[in-house]
Write a structure and sequence with these properties.
With 577 residues, the chain is an alpha/beta fold. 46% of the residues lie in helices and 14% in strands.
């Protein structure tokens, strides 16, 4: 089986916060790494989502042409994701020529099949700005919950999708002007209601979705699909063309709506990857019966990936690969309220990397992955988790074992003696836990996989306490040597199970034993005794530097003081991706 893995496309307007990382990109990376370790062929694809009103607004605020702004932000985001060790096979862009062509292709196919039509609508026009205002250019009061800063496309307080004309007391996002009036305009609409039955049947047949994803899709379908505009009165985006590829009459100043072209970016980014590598993109996307396609995203993106994008694929009547498993995540909150890119609330990825190495953040976020509900970040819980799991549990084990073995066994793996009672118990426990860990990874239960990884580290520490080689060596050096041989092999095993979560640390451990990271394949639970005898007798190793330094109270107090200005007082904060 081959695995196609995609994570929700991060929007181009600025550096993303830790909630974005935990809600799609990082769990996708953990799963992609796990599948590679199993020996499977994996293609992990992502891209910056670069079109739509927020990109124009962000570029205006930065006093840059929008294409220059997007160029710089793409390079910046790419560099940060590399800093977090996200192992994308390709990190593309929705502004690419491939995405232009493919979006126009889908539009034409859908129109040929009677699923796109022109519609006259009334849209808000700002007299002061001298232009139509697409949805995100309008703010106002939500008619459902009364939130005062609802956007024209969605309220981030109650989650309801909106039309700008529904807002109470609407105002221009550009100028703040309330001199708005309704004027007639023409846009292309996707006739989603024509696909209601087909999409419903497809959703019902989909079995690899968690309850969160399935329930969101079913809610949309139960409410009845409505036709939805797929073009906007904007200058930045993919031009609307006719059958001959020429500008469509009447649409010269319009582009495709970002939510129509963005998911197509998964396919076009694969085309970009294929163009660079010389490989085939078609084997992943067309008639790809030997591919399992897994999508990762936050819950706010689920409706578009379970309804709107599938309508594009199904409606084209072409054999495009549809998602097999859709993994949706809840929010990571900031002290009980929502992270926000637009409000600069929370910890952002560049700030995190400047504070500590990526493995601290990767472990903490995945050990608390927001799968069953929202999770609230606090500095206090961050300190407790990292100190307990990384410094005390994993780091201390590797440090104690390798330094003791370096001193008492001259930096070589002991070769004498055979396993005894303590080792037998360890083998049985590890066999069960490794089997469970593999199952959690395969089921994409990230938090449970992290918990089981921690339990395996704990098991090693419990064994070391029972075997007590630093005491036994005084009376039975051979028995102590057996314990150290097992413990040194446990160091390598710990690196193997840790690698999907904390790859830098796994690499440092493997280097201490003169192993390349590629030698850290996924461990087999059926041969634990052999697994813990993999290191060649008398082979050398060097104790690695301290893997994790403890996070001190003084450091936590400094972060609380530094970031307290970002603490939120408005419980209706947004969760903009």
């Amino acid at each position: 089986m081959r695995y196609l893995v995609t994570s929700a496309l991060p929007y181009i307007n600025g550096i993303k916060h830790l909630g974005n990382l935990a809600g799609s990109m990082l769990p996708a990376d953990v799963h992609a790494r796990f599948r590679r370790m199993q020996g499977h062929e994996v293609l992990f694809i992502c891209a910056t989502d670069e079109h739509g009103a927020p990109a124009e607004l962000a570029a205006e605020e930065a006093h840059q042409p929008v294409h220059i702004y997007c160029d710089e932000q793409h390079a910046l985001q790419k560099r940060i994701y590399e800093g977090f060790r996200l192992s994308f096979d390709w990190f593309g862009r929705t502004s690419s020529i491939e995405n232009h062509r493919l979006t126009q292709h889908f539009s034409q196919k859908l129109e040929n099949h009677g699923l796109i039509a022109e519609r006259k609508t009334e849209q808000l026009y700002s007299v002061e700005d001298g232009r139509f205002l697409p949805d995100r250019y309008v703010e106002g009061t939500c008619p459902h919950c009364g939130y005062n800063n609802a956007r024209g496309d969605q309220c981030d307080s109650c989650g309801n999708l909106l039309d700008p004309t529904e807002l109470i007391n609407p105002r221009s996002k550009i100028s703040g002007s309330t001199q708005l009036e309704l004027r007639e305009t023409v846009n292309l609409f996707l006739l989603q209601q024509k696909m209601q039955t087909r999409v419903h049947d497809w959703v019902e047949r989909s079995t690899g979705w968690p309850v969160l994803a399935k329930s969101i899709a079913e809610k949309w379908l139960a409410e009845g699909l409505k036709e939805r505009s797929i073009t906007r009165d904007l200058s930045w985006g993919i031009p609307v063309v006719d059958k001959e590829g020429n500008p469509r009459p009447g649409f010269e100043n319009k582009v495709y709506y970002v939510w129509f072209d963005a998911p197509i970016g998964y396919i076009s980014a694969t085309q970009q990857w294929a163009a660079i590598t010389g490989q085939s993109w078609q084997v992943w996307w067309l008639d790809a019966t030997d591919v399992e396609y897994i999508q990762f995203m936050g819950k706010d993106n689920v409706a578009f990936h379970t309804v709107s994008f599938p309508i594009t694929l199904l409606g084209s009547q072409e054999p495009w690969k549809k998602v097999d498993r859709l993994k949706a995540f809840n929010w990571v909150n900031w002290y009980g309220d929502k992270f926000s890119t637009s409000h600069k609330r929370g910890i952002f990825m560049d700030q995190a990397l400047a504070l500590l190495p990526p493995d601290y953040w990767r472990w903490y976020l995945m050990a608390n992955a927001p799968e069953g509900g929202d999770f609230s970040f606090t500095w206090e819980s961050f300190q407790a988790t990292c100190n307990s799991d990384l410094a005390n549990n994993l780091g201390n084990f590797v440090n104690r074992v390798t330094r003791f073995a370096d001193t008492r066994f001259q930096g070589r793996v002991p070769q004498d003696g055979v396993p005894g009672e303590h080792e037998g118990h360890l083998f049985r426990e590890l066999e069960e836990r490794l089997s469970r860990l593999r199952r959690f990874h395969e089921q994409i239960e990230i938090k449970k996989a992290a918990s089981e990884t921690r339990a395996i580290w704990n098991l090693g520490n419990e064994y070391l306490t029972l075997a007590a080689p630093w005491t036994t060596i005084k009376t039975d050096p051979v028995k102590a040597g057996v314990a150290i041989r097992i413990a040194l092999n446990l160091c390598v095993l710990f690196a193997q199970v840790a690698r999907p979560f904390i790859p830098d640390t796994a690499e440092r451990i493997s280097e201490a034993f003169h192993l390349s990271p590629n030698q850290l394949s996924w461990p087999s639970a059926s041969s634990v005794e052999t697994l813990l005898d993999n290191l060649n007798a008398s082979s050398s190793f060097e104790p690695p530097p301290v893997l994790f330094h403890k996070i001190e109270d003084e450091w936590v107090r400094a972060q609380l003081e530094r970031f307290q200005g970002q603490a939120v007082t408005n419980s209706c904060a947004d969760s903009e991706a």
